[in-house]
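Project standup — Tuesday

K.O.: blocked on the structure for the chain from last sprint. Re-posting the sequence here as requested.
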Amino acid sequence: MSRLRVALLTREFPPEVYGGAGVHVEHLAPALAELVDVEVHCFGAPRPSPLVAGTYQPWVALPPRGPDGGALGVVSAGLAMAAGAAGVDVVHSHTWYANLAGHLASLVHGLPHVVTAHSLEPRRPWKAEQLGGGYAVSSFCERAALEGAAAVIAVSSAMADDVVAAYPAVDPGRVHVVPNGVDVAAYRPVDDPGVLARLGVDPDRPSVLFVGRMTRQKGIDLLLEAGPAIDPAAQLVLCAGAPDTPAVGAELRAAAAALAARRGGVVWLEAMVPRPDVVALMSHATVFVCPSVYEPFGLINVEAMACGTAVVATATGGILDVVVDGETGVLVDPPADRARYVAELADRVNALLADPSRAAVLGRAGRRRVEERFTWASVAARTVEVYRRGSLAPPPRSGHARAPVSGTIA
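H.V.: unblocked you, prediction finished:
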């Protein structure tokens, strides 16, 4: 069987990676390259990677950020990206930033378009706070791409359900579940107390760790609210960066400062923390906390589990595919009632702080689960299965909507 030629379209690619979708493409690309011919098309400056075939920037005629939140610049870069993605067998886009480019490439070049749904704009209404009028643009890009795609890869069972619920025009037979993965060699238990000391964390005290962006989605505000009720003997370590807006950043910094004044033991790390340092923080943490209100997959939980750390997380979205309640971590019901959620979050964290031997057992089980289910080799193999499905076909040249194709959720 001849090797497929696949174009991966993405906003992020090393060294410019800031979110879970970027991490996904960073590791998926080389894993796929073992099985198919891969070329990466990404936003930004030229990259040294031999996998990168093209880089694209917004048109200089457009303001960098206007009332559209920069969305029109994204679309302009996507037009050039669509033109560049020619001569392959499959085009595969990631996030709304590249979705429209994938959709247009499929129409212009007659290619099947595969979309990986890392999140859904209808499930993230708070993005309007960040993008302004651009939220309508991002929603349009996503809708056009998903409804026109030959196949949609959902990163979790919950995401597959969300795709069909949010976009009823998408045939469920075109939706396939392929989870995210993790580099189990890079994310592993390590013993490096010197890293903690350098970052201002006492390696001899228990710690509760959060790693994530400063956004409503990640629920850091909920954790800060729960902070006074968390055992003060434990440090609360917050690796919080990339605020959605200056206002959100200022609000959360003020809340963290107020919490530090009230209970002490709060370590706020806003500067970009290198991956090896994050691995050390995860490995030494007694508990890793993911209080997200929306999480299509929750890769950060897989990374913490790979480091052998017990997880306390919200029972929402893809987290339910990752964390097994009572076996690899502890789940908290979503915050329909904010006060109740905050209290339960603190209770779950305190229970593990009070029983570090149980936390260690959960952490070891989490590592085993990652090794069994979430390696990049397995993710790449399942992605290629989607590419090679007989039902995967390019869009009709007439421009009319495609007829539903047969298939199953993999």
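K.O.: great, moving the ticket to review. The longest strand covers residues 37-43. The chain has a mean pLDDT of 92.
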